[in-house]
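dude i think i finally got it to work??
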Amino acid sequence: MLRVDALSLVLAVIVAWLAIGTVGIVAWRRLRVVSRVLFPAGAAAGAVLAVAAFLAIGAPASETVLPLGLPDLPFHLRLDALSAFFLVLLGSAGTAISLFSAGYFRASEGAAPGLVCFQYHVFLASMALVLLAADAYAFMVAWEAMALSSYFLVTTEHRIPEIRRAGFLYLLIAHVGAIGILLCFGVLQGASGDYTFAAMRGTVLSPAWASIGFFLALFGFGAKAGLMPLHVWLPEAHPAAPSPVSALMSGVMLKTAIYGLLRVAFDLLPLQIWWWGAIALAFGLATALFGVIFAAAQTDMKRLLAYSSIENIGILVAGFGLAILFKAYDKPLLAAIALTAVLYHALNHAFFKSLLFLATGAVLHATRERSLGKLGGLIHRMPWVAWLALVGTLAIAGLPPLNGFVSEWLLVQAFLFTPTLPQSFVNMLVPIAAAALVLAAALAAYVMVKFYGVVFLGRPREANLAYAKDAGRLERFALSFLAAGCVLLGLFPVAVIRALDPVNALLVGAPLGEAAGHWLMLAPFGTDRSSYSPLVVLVVVVAVVLVTMQVVHRYYHGRVRRADAWDCGYPLQTPRMQDTAEGFGQPVRQVFEPFFRIERELPTPFDTKPRYRVVPGDPWWHAVYVPIARAADLAARFVGLIQQGRISVYLVYSFVTLLALLFFVR
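look at this
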């Protein structure tokens, strides 16, 4: 009975979001109504969704059929443990982002406030429908609604040509991925003509057809997630979109692709094959390393976070591949641990990446600057944003006792037990994969030191930063909510893991249960093998800080002599002498230079105004996408030659076509 009520409540939230968006159309340019009424109402609906979905995770699945769509193709909806978990993620992150949006959007933000409100809430509702869809028709309708609404949000500042180009690239790759998903569903229905997920679960597929379905899903959902080499839209769309939209896309929308992969691989496909997992693991780790290396070289703070999202998606796909490996070799407990790491990291990423994107939005509004080279010292002007962003920075860097450490630690633990697999080839490659994961995590910490240090620490690099103001009350509350989530998810991992057990039971048939440990100690394999206590770590960290402060106060207070810092014999120090974003990224750029496509502008001895410029480019763009664009341009030119605009030429085409048909039909 609880499950039916939960499904009805989730549907009511979707209707509420659509209604809020419709009211936004009516209140077209009434900014006060949109910001003070509609966005807070959308946040309240998100909170209701999170609570209802959380209560539904451990209850039996329920289904319903909506009389929408075509006469013989109604919408089948299903709420089970997997969809409920991702709805919790959507509701939690959506609540905070909607509250931040209430204080963020201005009358001059490109499109009219009411139109932005409509597109935003349609985006939320379509993501919820994607997670509820139980047939291919409903799924694809919701998927396309999600793509179109997010496209219009990305192009909010549509008067700028670069933003229009970024939106077109995003929409193009989204539809290419959608074709892969549609073909995947065509394979899964097995010529039965029944496109409901219930029928697909009963379809008998050969290993060859199952493999085709899996890789179509990996391609289609990988395009939406930003899996390499389908990632090129992501670092273009995020800087173009308003910051709350970037937070919603990175924190939530990318996870709908992870949901799709989990749904297809573990729920709809009748079997799992080990080499599926090996390929997914390889693509995931390559994507993680690629994303974090390129993040280290960025000088735009939103583009840096976009490449960081690519890195985290790579970690999720690597964990997904590891879970397939364990499931294929009938090791359900190890598969459950790898899957738990994936789900936990998806939830963690929703919190800390949304927090960081919203913090950059506050900085962008206060300074009108996105370039790291023109920021600095904002901790003095924006203390609320700076201290809350520090929580997200430490979390995404994977430092205990915050949430980012727990999921990465669980994934490393799962890697450590891969030598128990019977495939010697996999056992030989897994240590390399584990090393790649650790390298990606270490570089992520390096990137976050660069991000936070350049933006908030040091001295202001531009004079206008002296006029920056801190975020408003609604924005502070939203940032505080996400920061609190990063802390709580890190301090109480056992409670979170036990809440995820119904998802493990659904997908791999093995909940962790008591194997996860007790509330004080996380020990997925038992305390004799590995354990972690975030509360103990927190107590130790706090104790060390307090003792250090007490020692300094007792033995050195009153004996400190203040003087100007040594200036190396050059007293004219300016903010330009601080480390820059380029300086932070230079070591990584030099070590991993083969990964980049470097464009250099070098001065000559005869230049009156010498200029030195280094731009690290994406090699995939020039190796894959530029040739495709040229081929499409040539094809368009050929079609243009055929279109002569003369009726006599078109009659000749028709006559030749008729002769060809008569020849082949005879």
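The mean pLDDT is 86.
im so relieved honestly
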